[in-house]
Amino acid sequence: MNATLQRGSVAIVGVAESDLGKVIPGLGPIDLMAQATARALDDCGLQLDEVDGLFATTSQSRMPTLALAEYLGIQPRYHDATNMGGASFMTMVARAQAAIEAGLCQVAVVAYGSTQRSMGRANVAAPDPNPHEAPYRPMYTASSYALAASRHMHQYGTTRRQLADIAVAARQWALLNPAAWEKRPLTVEEVLASPMISEPLTLRDCCLVTDGGGALVLTHAERARDLRRPPVYVLGVGEALGHYSISAMPDLTATAAVASGAQAYRMAGLAASDIDVLQLYDAFTITPLLFLEDLGFCPKGEGGRYVENGRIAPGGELPVNTSGGGLSYCHPGMYGIFALIEATRQLRGECGERQVADCHTALAHGNGGTLSSQSTVILGSAAAL
What we know:
Elements: E1 10-17, H1 29-44, E2 53-57, H2 64-72, E3 78-80, H3 88-101, E4 107-114, H4 116-119, H5 142-156, H6 160-174, H7 188-193, E5 196-198, E6 201-202, E7 212-220, H8 221-224, E8 232-241, H9 257-268, E9 277-280, H10 286-294, H11 303-306, H12 325-328, H13 336-348, E10 361-368, E11 373-380
Parallel strand pairs: 2-3, 2-4, 9-10
Antiparallel strand pairs: 1-7, 1-8, 4-7, 5-6, 8-11, 10-11
């Protein structure tokens, strides 16, 4: 898609979360989408009646854009409810940009909501039947990611302690984020000693289960300059599909992020070395490790050694998941939109104790399914145009 998109033609002008954690009884996913949308519009100073593009998905509604538009009382000219799992929101940024460039809409909202923690497994999509996997009774989705972790350990010598370093770094960032679910320090030893969920992944190698929603507001660059917050420009986008079932993944250690990242870098005219802050989907500790490799921040097989000694933690060489990520901040079913929210706030310089100094470029990467769909967005401040 990005072959026809123009670098910096649109900007994210508003971001917000809904209530997070465990929300009050009676709220559903559409309530949280609407709450986040209202807050994101307030963030940028636009009005609800100006929204003419609507992009939304959730595993708890069959027709989320229709449900959200009805709830908000709007009739957008353009809408898109594409579901690629947690990568959906980066892809929606690209499609919102395409729609704005084509004149199909002028102000686009991207929204998400989930009450996964409150509802438990109720109303949360189950995997499709798979005769190649079902006889082994896998724990969806942990067992799928455990396969990737096991293969990486076997092939490259990656250790459980190195995976634990990723969880500890996420917690250290979360302790600097007032909105984060986890408030207690975490050590490598505690990660290793926590209950085994699916070998080699322990409880602390796995993401949180929370309620929550988020929203982004995008518009064309010219209008963005006159709004309440500094615009955050879309510099590059890319998306790629690899497989659906983990048993069909050609190489458990290599994801389609190689392709989505290459597309985004090419459009942005940047390389991995030009990125100031990274927001990587971290449903499990193995995912940011794979994405660090596949997005070009270290060679394939070196991810375990790369994350050692606090390199991605506060004060480290490369700031990764500065909100605390899905491991320690929030993870309401699909995390991708929250990576975009944090990237935007870092570029606007709004992150307080966790703010990355001289932050002008950010990469937000989404992952859907079982390492199945990959989508990459590179964002920049005015200084990066």
